[in-house]
Amino acid sequence: MDRKQQAARIQRIVEAIAQRALEVSPDHRPAYIKNEIAKVREAFRQTYEADERLTASAMEFVDSMYSWVKARAKSLELGGNMAKDI
C-alpha cells in the first residue's frame, strides 16, 4: 500500500469515526475519538510491522487523525457540508 492508498484509507476511517462520534454525547466525544484512534494506531502498527517505512508513514497519518475526526464530526453536526477531503 503506497502513501496515496494510506491517505484514502485514513480518510475513510476518519469519516467512519466522525459518524459514530455523533452518537456519543458531546462531553464524552473527545475520549471516544481518542479511544478509536488508539485502536487504529494498534491495527496499523500490526498491519505494517514488517515494513518500518510504511509503519512510520502510517503513524504520521494517525498522529493527525484526532483533529481531522474532530473537525469532520463538527461539520457533520452542523450539516455535513464541509468537503470530506482532509
Give me the strand/helix succession.
HHH
State the helical fraction: over 70%
Please identify the structural class as seen in this structure.
mainly alpha
Unreliable stretches: none
Number of strands: 0
List keywords for this structure.
single chain, mainly alpha, 3 helices
Could you characterize what this model shows?
With 86 residues, the protein is an all-alpha fold.
Explain briefly what this protein structure is.
The protein has 86 residues and is mostly helical. The chain has 3 helices and no strands.
Layout of strands and helices, then pairs:
Layout (H helix, E strand, L loop, with lengths): L2 H19 L7 H19 L4 H26 L9
Helix pairs in contact: 1-2, 1-3, 2-3
